[in-house]
Amino acid sequence: MKPCKACGGLNKYANGVCKDCHTKAKNKYYQACKEKDPEYLKKHHLKYGKKQRDYYLRKTYGITSEEYNVLFDKQKGRCAICDRPQSELKHSLAVDHNHTTGELRGLLCSSCNTAIGSLRESTELFASALIYLNKW
After folding, report:
1. DSSP string covering the chain
2. Average pLDDT per run of 10 along the chain, which is 136 residues long?
3. What's the CA gap between 58 and 17, in Å, rounded?
4. Predicted local distance difference test score (pLDDT) of residue 14
């Protein structure tokens, strides 16, 4: 491992600097751009946001934006568990998948997705949680 070009630490990152130094430089750059043009980040997101989302969906889940949209339409824009509509959420619906097989299950709000992850996708833990909730 080579030392970081900026701080000398041994936590090398892809471009020769560690993750912390990379983040600081990126934030400094965005702040300078924002000072020159207050609408910079909004314009940047409009220009590159869809491309970045497409890349993320393809790399992480092996699906395209079109396939995500098909799932979204199939669920009528609602969380597959709690049925809350996308319009009530701060973030877009998350792609839920089996971490062992990679199989896609549906789209969930962040609360439901976090709950499944917190209970380690275990039906036994879900059953135990249900018994506990019914008891109280």
Report:
1. -PPPTTT--S---TTSS-HHHHHHHHHHHHHHHHHH-TTHHHHHHHHHHHHHHHHHHHHHHS--HHHHHHHHHHTTTB-TTT--BGGG-SSPPEEEE-TTT--EEEEE-HHHHHHHHHTTT-HHHHHHHHHHHHH-
2. 80 76 88 85 82 92 94 97 95 92 93 94 94 96
3. 27
4. 65
**Cα torsion angle, 101, 84, 76, 70, sign:** negative
* pLDDT score, position 135: 96
Q: Determine contact, residues 54/65, Cβ cutoff 8 Å.
A: yes
Structure tokens belonging to residue 96: 């839920």
Residue 39: its pLDDT value, please?
86
